[in-house]
Amino acid sequence: MDATYDATKRELSTDQGTLRYHEAGDPSAPPLVLLHGSGPGVTGWRNYRGNLGFFTQTHRCYVIEFPGFGVSDPVEGHPVLTAGSSVIRFMDALGIESAPMIGNSMGGVVGVNLAIKKPDRVEKLVTIGGVGPNVFSPSPSEGLRLLQEFTDDPSRDKLVRWLSAMVYDRKLITEELIEERWQAAIHPDAQKTSQMMYGSAAFEMQQQFLAASDTPPYWSMMHKVACPTLLTWGRDDRVSPPDMAMVPMRLIPDAELHVFPQCGHWVMIEAKEAFEATVAAFLVR
């Protein structure tokens, strides 16, 4: 199977602009929806390109590019909320009634919110870090503070510092990866989205809103996630430290947790083979 960028890229016209995505695998196989994370230069393709060859052995894979990250057309609204609505628009357009989902970091939060609000659309859920509140670790974490510093005043050096906090093995941060991420991070849509999510001013506004709001945080509603859920975590995650897993592990009724040693935030990349085997066993169970 040809799982290259050009062979898998697709476009979908919707009433809110064009959604772009990657599709690979046997058309008769069950669907698997992959949701990407956030951060400078992120795309769904960059998150999951190394895993497509494995998951297409059993599933028809759909890697959605969320609005506002420089690939799909941007839409108005907070990126986490617009990402969730884009998943439903995408599934409706392709006639996917329900599917298991894999969500990396922000993508995991998107998946959890969908499982709470649209439980009939999420068959199973796999999250990769990022889900839940900090319990013992500082908030924001080291990785998020570095992300905030980059967002407030982007530079190549700050990008390298942030990327280095994403992994356990810094050999993964190659010059090719740095250049790829830098070019994508300076896209105007990506910069606007990053400012909304991680800029200092936006962070302060979010904190003030939370303090004054009666609306409970999403993670306090995780007892409503009815689907089987696999929480995956890097033991050495400096963006969303492993103590965050305690709350979703306790609140989600049918949740299990797998922690990968010598691994940072990018579990699907840094612990690739172990992650794939663990997820494959979960999906067929």
UniProtKB/TrEMBL annotation:
<feature type="domain" description="AB hydrolase-1">
    <location>
        <begin position="30"/>
        <end position="271"/>
    </location>
</feature>
<dbReference type="GO" id="GO:0046464">
    <property type="term" value="P:acylglycerol catabolic process"/>
</dbReference>
<dbReference type="InterPro" id="IPR050266">
    <property type="entry name" value="AB_hydrolase_sf"/>
</dbReference>
<dbReference type="Pfam" id="PF00561">
    <property type="entry name" value="Abhydrolase_1"/>
</dbReference>
<dbReference type="InterPro" id="IPR029058">
    <property type="entry name" value="AB_hydrolase_fold"/>
</dbReference>
<feature type="region of interest" description="Disordered">
    <location>
        <begin position="1"/>
        <end position="22"/>
    </location>
</feature>
<protein>
    <submittedName>
        <fullName>Alpha/beta fold hydrolase</fullName>
    </submittedName>
</protein>
<dbReference type="GO" id="GO:0047372">
    <property type="term" value="F:monoacylglycerol lipase activity"/>
</dbReference>
<dbReference type="InterPro" id="IPR000073">
    <property type="entry name" value="AB_hydrolase_1"/>
</dbReference>
<dbReference type="GO" id="GO:0016020">
    <property type="term" value="C:membrane"/>
</dbReference>
<keyword id="KW-0378">Hydrolase</keyword>
